[in-house]
Amino acid sequence: MTKLFEAPLYPYKRSPDQDASSPVRHPVVVIGAGPIGLAMAIDLAQQDVPVVVLDDNDKVSVGSRAICFSKRSLEILDRYGCGEEMVNKGVVWSHGRVFFGDRQVYNFDLLPEDGHQRPAFINLQQYYCELYLVERLRALQLEGKPVEIRGGNKVASLEQKAGHTALIIDTQDGAYRLEAEWLIACDGAGSPSRRMLDLDFVGRVFEDNFLIADVIMKADFPTERWFWFDPPFNKDQSALLHKQPDGVWRIDLQLGWDIDKEEEKKPENVIPRLKQMLGDDVDFDLEWVSIYTFQCRRMEKFRHGRVIFAGDAAHQVSPFGARGANSGFQDTDNLGWKLKLVLDGKAPDSLLDSYGLEREWAADENILQSSRSTDFITPKSEMSRIFRDAVLDLSEGYEFARPLVNSGRLSVPCVYETSPLNSDDVDGLPARTRPGSPAADAPLGEDWLLKKLNGGFKLLALGVDVPDHSEIAGIPVDSICVPAGAIGADLRDRYLGEAKVAVYLMRPDQHVAARWTELDWTQIEIALNRAIGKGEAA
User: Fold this and answer.
1) Which residue in 79, 192, 218, 427 has its CB near the most CB atoms, within 10 A?
2) Residues 484-498 pLDDT 10s
3) DSSP letters along 120-141, please?
């Protein structure tokens, strides 16, 4: 890694809070300056919510860690103001290949349709992601937004009180006290915050170990995801190859359960394994090595009074499918607008319960898919292995078998099917944009639809004129009207289908709250009240 990433990005600096005669109370405190904590702070700051980020570190993470950022994450990061930097630096890909032994059994395309601004995935080292988020946070500070990041500030204890959480923060200058009206714990899989509240995960721990090696090399492999079942260079195990920027390649090798982790991480043991895979004639340098044992678990509840958990602090999955950081960004996307409405007194405190309901639902979906991937990749019985190998053999020549192959079903955004914020649906409109669904992008004139759905509630009116309303039920709502003659094929296919007219109420996180095939202001007001947690009260 270059010195750029070794230098402190947010070094410790004494805060006026440390000299206050009594604990200073902040509207929102975020614990953790990883990708999810930084994204959470940016989301709130862009809405003028004062927020303080605390982290005991002062720089971006070591090693590439999370590298696969999905289309939905890039769309969220566009709203946070750093999606373009991510895409420009990242390695764009949508194709992958699956191998069984030494032969390819099939390939796939994760985004086979046109009409989307962002690609299916990019590969980018986590330290770049964190860098761009810190830079965006600094830009917001220059704009006068109320956001602060404090490096070298370690949360030593937290205690929930009536109406706030009391914190003790350790620094190099000693400890000080702080209070938060709302505390958001984004402090990772080992979450000290979770332990301080005596909370834990429920779920599965998988008895397997995987070696991660970031390798710097010149190679002519295509920009694709390559996954091997039982490759000749890692017999009876699995392997994964991904390209990253700066000539770095991510290699994952399954090692099995009964290993000495410290021994396996030593270069004299890693290098021979990589040579078996890459060949003796390929020159490479090791940049970063780690061994992970993964879990598919989550907290039973993500909200505990005035403490809310997000990202790995709330849920963990195996790395197969890139559901970790991508799911975390969806957490922040879901929580930010709800917390803003509650702080402004425009929505009841109970609206934050819907964050838990929706994101716990999403976590269960991710855990289910991740567990299925892991069980397919690492069969737990001889019968399971026979079934898996038969599916792989059949997939080479028969298309019907390919959906059964599971090398890590890659991350897609969750549809909040059972959300209490959804209104009843109507017939005649496409299923992919039903209530609870994330908005599907589409060209809109010379621009893109999701760029128009950039924060706040929106009314998307297709084929019908909607008079401009600055507020509905006390909530700001912007209208986006697209005349019938300006509706392109992609927009029609994704939002209209066979209908001639459609009106969509879109949430600030670009999920569909309600939709109709005619304009009805009474129904719109009822749906908006429902979407902010007020049921059907007009």
Assistant:
1) 79
2) 999 999 999 999 999
3) SEEE--HHHHHHHHHHHHHHHH
